[in-house]
From TrEMBL:
This is [histone H3]-lysine(4) N-trimethyltransferase. GO terms for cellular component: nucleus. It catalyses: L-lysyl(4)-[histone H3] + 3 S-adenosyl-L-methionine = N(6),N(6),N(6)-trimethyl-L-lysyl(4)-[histone H3] + 3 S-adenosyl-L-homocysteine + 3 H(+). GO terms for biological process: methylation. GO terms for molecular function: histone H3K4 trimethyltransferase activity; zinc ion binding. Its EC number is 2.1.1.354. It comes from Carassius auratus (Goldfish).
Amino acid sequence: MVIRHPEDVVSLRNTQSTEADVNSVSFILNRGESLSRCSQCKTARYCSVQCQKQAWPDHKRECKCFKRLQPRIPTDSVRLLTRIIFKLLAQSESDQEDLYSIAEHQSHLADMSEEKKEGLRQLCTTLQLYLGEENHDLSPLPPGLDPISLLARVTCNCFSISDGELQDVGVGLYPSMSLLNHDCQPNCVMIFEGKRLTLRAVRLIRPCEELTISYTDILATSKERRSHLQEQYHFLCQCTRCTTEDKDCDMLAGEKTAWRSLRDAIPHLEQLQSEQRWEELLKESQALLHRYTDVVPDRNIYVLRLLDLAMDACISLDDYETALEYGNRALEPYKLYYSDPHPSRAVELLRVGKLQHFLGRLEEARGSFTQAYDIMKVTHGTDHVLTNEVRRKLSECQAELGQV
């Protein structure tokens, strides 16, 4: 089951969502100015009439909930939980046999702080308002799956759904995938194509070796990763990367007071990015990069984040030369932290390659596309839409170089 952020396409499906699900995907995750709104709730958006018709059997009950709560829009977790409740109430015994039951996943309620429990209780109040009186009878739910327990299970086991450039576009519950354990240097990666989730091995796996994925962004220090995992998933990570504090010195390289200033500035800059205030974002990012260029190296994770923000702003403002400058500076730190094969490094190489190609730097672009393709063959597979895009770009470069 997946759910799109409310300002874009709404999409869900109750599934284990492995690669074999491709034939049963009925509608897509998308974004863009041309999306049309649901005429009733004005919240759900769709890329086509066909997409809207396919979504209607699931959206029709949610549509009434949206109208009941307007002008407020509930959080993604409340929306996802509502859809799960509707599915559970309508689920047949055969459906339950086909899927790992959500009841098999831990809620960790006993491990949560009182503050977090209070947050769940507030979300449950929103859920009741959202469901309305006609849906308040939840007694037919399976034993032990009351709303607060379900909400706790969702928050501990849902996945962020990402687009081709690994940007979060929604949240989803994939019950079988939630059973995989975490490692900060995992042997598998999860790749989305629309709402289909594929688990892919990124290195040779020995017989009886456990399959692992990463629950958190590895571009963070051991302390930050452990803190996040403890807060969100209620365990202390004991992986080799955390216990040895691998690469922490590189991540925090440079003058401490300087990188702390960068760290403190990033939430504000990310807010400018979310509001698409590109000129302000570029001006402030460049000022910080210039101010600390001699005291904090590019491999510092906060400088690296600034480079990404500045690159996004430049692309949005059609300043491709400067965008490429920032992209090139980020490549070495990406290689340091995202050891091959890693999808994040492949996506960064693709972005840089596109800029090089557009600016006529064909030899450089061919090199970037080649590296990206070599990684994506492993992380995404040869049939993924992004791998096909890289292959097409590489062919274009080779053809253009042959004409020079």
